[in-house]
Automatic annotation (TrEMBL):
Membrane-spanning intervals of the chain: 7-29, 49-75, 82-103, 123-144, 151-173, 179-197
Annotated keywords: Membrane, Transmembrane, Transmembrane helix
Protein name: PAP2 family protein
UniProt xrefs under InterPro entries: PAP2/HPO, PAP2/HPO_sf
Sequence ranges assigned to domain Phosphatidic acid phosphatase type 2/haloperoxidase in this UniProt record: 82-194
SMART domains named in the record: acidPPc
Amino acid sequence: MKRYSKAIYWGLPISLILAISIVLHLGWINAFDNFFEGLVHIVPNLKGLMLKITFLADTKVDLIWMVLIAVILWFRKQRPLATNLVLTMITGDAVGWVIKHLIQRARPVQHLAVDDGFSFPSGHTLGMGMIVIWIIMVLLPVVLKDRTKRFWIDFLLIVWLVIVMISRVYVYAHYPSDVCGSVAIALTWVGVMQFVFEKIKQVVNK
């Protein structure tokens, strides 16, 4: 329960600070975005690679990853975990859609035609963020007891998530604050859902 609370305590304030700053067009957000956009684009001619990465983290592909993981867990008799993942992802995507349409931030002017709709939060990053954070916080502590192996899997998953974030900024689909906000929302939502599941389990077991 403690680690889920920490996820909410860290994720929620960051999500709110970024969302409010974007809505109010605060100066520090522009400075933040300009700095990290420049950093991301230091290495030129990576658009082809970044488009491949962004495809692997597409919202539809995220749902395929979700289904694959859930099916494997279901047939391995880990049905509560499978249900947990599906509910977390579906409700999280719904929350992301609501936030996107409440804030209605325009995308960067250089964005590709395929990237339509609003910019905050990034659906790609939110979906992949929820999968990565869920695996790290929920799945691995249950199925893998070796702390060293868990550390390296956690590390690789975080590196992959950062690469996805970079790819979305590189192709001008989102601002850096969009992808950072998406990870914060993902962290918050995974924490909220696990808190809810733990409370339900306590009630059922009484």
